[in-house]
Amino acid sequence: MTIDYEKKDRVRIMTFNNPEKRNALTIKDFLEMERIEEEFKADPDAWVLIMTGAGDRSFCAGADLDEAIGAVTSAEVKLEPRAKRWFSHCYKPVISAINGYAVAGGTEFILLTDIRIAAEHAMLGIQEVRWGLVPLGGSLVNLPRQIPWCKAMEILLIGDRITAQQALDIGLINMVVPKEELMPTAMKVAERICENGPLAVRLVKEIVMKAMSQPRELGFITEMELGATAFKSEDAREGPMAFFEKRKPNFKGI
Description:
Layout: E1 3-8, E2 11-16, H1 27-42, E3 48-53, E4 58-60, H2 65-73, E5 94-98, E6 101-103, H3 105-110, E7 115-119, E8 123-125, H4 139-146, H5 149-158, E9 162-163, H6 164-169, E10 175-177, H7 182-194, H8 198-212, H9 216-230, H10 234-244
Helix pairs in contact: 4-5, 8-9
């Protein structure tokens, strides 16, 4: 496998680790990502995930084309419709630390993360059309929902790469930092999230994700129904108590 999974207190770090091929992924790696996602979601001590790549050259180049194209065109792997993508149904926060090239599937993974931090030299792009292919990692659905339509279509139809600064300018990522500050910044953001009530954080993300695909009025109902469950938790009692006692809350996620 070329994916590492590391634990640091409440934070988990998933690293694409195939730098010789710009951290491209094999078919087995995609299955490993699904396993890691399920482990992360099921682990009560895992509150935030950071997704990054090994080295400082590439975040992820998507699928290893040497293997993937042959497998698909030979029907070894069938492209069957799926109603989810990697981490698309994960309600715990996911941060991407973009340490270099993030093209094709690499950018598609970024679109499935909540907070995106890029090194100054990072480049993003969805370039499948240049090679006569169609991106199938969710970008055709996610990208036009996250940035203006015209910018999304420019990225998808022309297939050029964009710089980290350009991605920041169109609201595709949150911040750009020097490469040596990338992981410290990502860890700082993750640790800041971990200071909040984990149950409340998960419910906020779940409500936002579900309400986005609902009519406005139904979204209000979803907000109330799911949000109200937080008030029955121990964390909901601990938070206000800590406020009045002028101390940091000791959240447990229950």
